[in-house]
């Protein structure tokens, strides 16, 4: 029967169950202090996963951002409520499916991050023709390998449209000012009269 030190991480202890179940647990002096059964270890792992999932889910739905993530096959694994509102697509429509089924590959910054490993920070992006966002992306790595990518997006469509409207309005006002200046009569009533006679000169 195998023994392991009391401070052995579960990630190192679990593979040892293939050789022995239970594992004897020893203290710093090498004295036996108890045993660890595989079933107990699995329950501890499951509880840790459930805690992490609860924190993760709450965090995703608390942030006022569109949050999405894809796995290494570009299948959607995270699609937040804000993402649902922003893109008018429900999570149950996307989860587990290739993100390219719903968006053009050329417009997916997250897909490029998955492929290249390059992060994007506060970049203006247009995932659809009618939508403008500020996007951040990061690759998800496990043991040095890219296993997915995550993106957060903030909708700036209204600001972009407002800026365009202000630009167009400014151009119109400028053009109108030029037209008014051209048509405005001179304060000198004889401004348009040309000649060289002394009467005109004076």
TrEMBL record:
Transmembrane segments: none annotated. Residues 52-123 form the PAS domain. Residues 183-202 are annotated as: Disordered. One of its GO terms (biological process) is regulation of DNA-templated transcription. It comes from the Bacteria. InterPro entries: CBS_dom_sf, PAS, PAS-like_dom_sf, PAS_fold. This is PAS domain S-box protein.
């Amino acid at each position: 029967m195998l023994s392991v030190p009391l401070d052995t991480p579960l990630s190192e202890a679990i593979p040892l169950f293939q050789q022995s179940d239970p594992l004897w647990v020893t203290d710093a002096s090498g004295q036996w202090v108890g045993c660890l059964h595989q079933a107990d270890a699995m329950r501890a792992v499951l509880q840790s996963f459930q805690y992490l999932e609860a924190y993760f889910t709450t965090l995703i739905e608390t942030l006022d951002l569109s949050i999405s993530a894809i796995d290494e096959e570009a299948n959607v694994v995270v699609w937040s409520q804000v993402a649902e509102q922003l893109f008018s697509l429900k999570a149950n429509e996307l989860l587990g499916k290739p993100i390219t089924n719903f968006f053009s590959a050329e417009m997916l910054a997250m897909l490029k991050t998955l492929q290249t490993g390059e992060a994007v920070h506060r970049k203006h992006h247009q995932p659809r023709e009618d939508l403008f966002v500020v996007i951040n992306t990061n690759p998800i790595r496990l043991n040095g390998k890219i296993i997915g990518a995550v993106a957060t997006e903030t909708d700036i469509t209204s600001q972009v449209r407002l800026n365009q409207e202000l630009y167009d309005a400014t151009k119109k006002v400028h053009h109108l000012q030029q037209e008014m200046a051209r048509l405005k009569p001179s304060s000198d009533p004889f401004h348009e009269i040309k000649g060289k006679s002394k009467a005109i000169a004076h």
